[in-house]
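Checklist before submission:
- one chain only
- standard amino acids only
- sequence pasted in full

Submission:
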Amino acid sequence: MTTISGTPYYIAPEVLQEIYDEKCDIWSCGVILYIFLCGYPPFNGDNDTEIMKTVKKGIYDFPIEEWATVSKEAKELVSKMLKYDPKQRFSAKECLGHQWFKKNETLADNKISGNVINKLKKFKVILY
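Returned file contents:
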């Protein structure tokens, strides 16, 4: 794969360099999991250019306000999915075998913070 394609919020840094494999999809899934857990993306900006700059840096955090109630296993899984170096990033098999999935086989029983739900409602991706 060598063509740049994707939505700025979800695109992996290596895609921007036009050298990537299936691990770029794990990155995108990690971004989606991050959003599901806190209500906003790990890499943000006021426009596509700013978002791409934050993606290229690959630096994100887990702000206390939203992440205090998120399990250490969930944070660990997100961290493994958002490893900057694709060689160190989890594979799909490793993700599905992670203890967070095993521990939370009945996700419907977990409660989602109202704050996260409100942020998810406000978060909109503009598709071109």
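Reviewer check: The longest helix spans residues 23-38.
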